[in-house]
């Protein structure tokens, strides 16, 4: 990190960094191979762009877009295969979050693999009369202030979801933004103040409360606070 800070970010040179084995879904490799702090330590660096693609197709778009950025870029990648939720025609632009599922009751702002989990939550809650907006916040820095604030204003309640430490992560960035621009009830889904461990990816997602069921609970929590 010291080398990245001093020789890349400080110099503002166009180096592109691919961060692999991020999140708990690395699975059996355990804590030594599970990067849960990378968003926090990268987004704090001046000049650094931070991206967390949702799937393989978006990862390809992110790489092609990153090449055109004059400064440094960090792209966060996992190891486990994840469902593909985008198509070759799905829009992607650095700094522009995308609404994947419109809603009016609550917004789930997610990045990486948890966008899929958020979409499953939205689909399930729709049958219960709860209309969830899902935002793919692939670019954590620079944040898409306009989309985030507009969605918060529309729904009045926010859940963030990421496969990263709650402290300093994407959800923290959203909370920082909205605390000044438009305070609304926020519930953050992420890893608590702990390291990962070995296990099957699906088991670890449940253990660290990152699965669709956990996001659903968070939705109900912010809806109660909203009222």
Could you please describe the fold and organization of this structure?
By secondary structure, this protein is an alpha/beta fold. The chain has a single domain, classed as 3-Layer(aba) Sandwich (Rossmann fold), CATH 3.40.50.920. Helix content is 37%, strand content 19%. The protein has eight helices and nine strands. A five-stranded mixed beta sheet has the order 4-6-5-8-9, with helices on both faces. Helix 4 crosses helix 8 and helix 5 (145-155) packs across helix 6 (170-181). The longest helix is centred in the last third of the chain and has 15 residues, at 212-226. The chain is globular and about 50 Å long. It starts with a helix and ends with a helix. The model has no long low-confidence stretch (mean pLDDT 96).
- In helices, the fraction of residues equals 25-40%
Distance from N terminus to C terminus (CA atoms, Å) equals 43 Å
Strand order of the largest sheet: 4-6-5-8-9
User: CATH topology, what is it called?
Assistant: Rossmann fold
User: Main beta sheet: strand number and arrangement?
Assistant: 5 strands, mixed
> Quick one: how many beta strands?
9
Q: Measured on Cα atoms, how large is the radius of gyration?
A: 17 Å
Residue windows where pLDDT falls under 50 for at least 5 positions: none
CATH class category label:
Alpha Beta
Q: How many structural domains in the coordinates? A: 1
Structural class computed from helices and strand pairing = alpha/beta
Architecture (CATH level 2) name: 3-Layer(aba) Sandwich
Q: Strand-residue fraction?
A: 15-25%
Q: From N to C, what is the helix and strand string? A: HEHEHEEEHEEHEHEHH
What shape does the CA trace take? Answer: globular
Whole-number mean pLDDT = 96
The number of helical segments is: 8
């Amino acid at each position: 990190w010291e080398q990245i800070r001093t020789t890349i970010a400080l110099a503002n040179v166009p180096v592109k960094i691919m961060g692999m084995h991020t999140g708990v879904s690395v699975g059996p490799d355990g804590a030594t191979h599970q990067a849960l702090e990378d968003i926090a330590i990268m987004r704090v660096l001046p000049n650094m762009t931070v991206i967390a693609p949702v799937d393989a197709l978006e990862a390809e778009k992110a790489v092609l877009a990153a090449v055109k950025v004059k400064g440094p870029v960090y792209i966060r990648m996992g190891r486990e295969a994840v469902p593909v939720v985008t198509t070759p025609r799905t829009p992607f632009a650095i700094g522009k979050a995308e609404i994947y599922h419109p809603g009016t009751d609550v917004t789930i702002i997610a990045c990486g693999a948890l966008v899929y989990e958020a979409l499953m939550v939205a689909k399930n809650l729709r049958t219960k009369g709860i209309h969830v907006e899902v935002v793919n916040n692939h670019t954590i820095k620079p944040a898409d202030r306009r989309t985030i604030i507009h969605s918060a204003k529309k729904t009045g309640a926010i859940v963030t979801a990421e496969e990263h430490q709650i402290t300093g992560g994407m959800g923290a960035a959203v909370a920082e933004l909205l605390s000044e621009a438009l305070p609304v009830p926020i519930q953050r889904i992420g890893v608590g103040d702990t390291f990962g461990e070995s296990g099957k990816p699906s088991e670890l997602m449940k253990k660290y409360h990152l699965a669709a069921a956990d996001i659903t609970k968070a939705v109900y929590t912010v809806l109660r606070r909203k009222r």
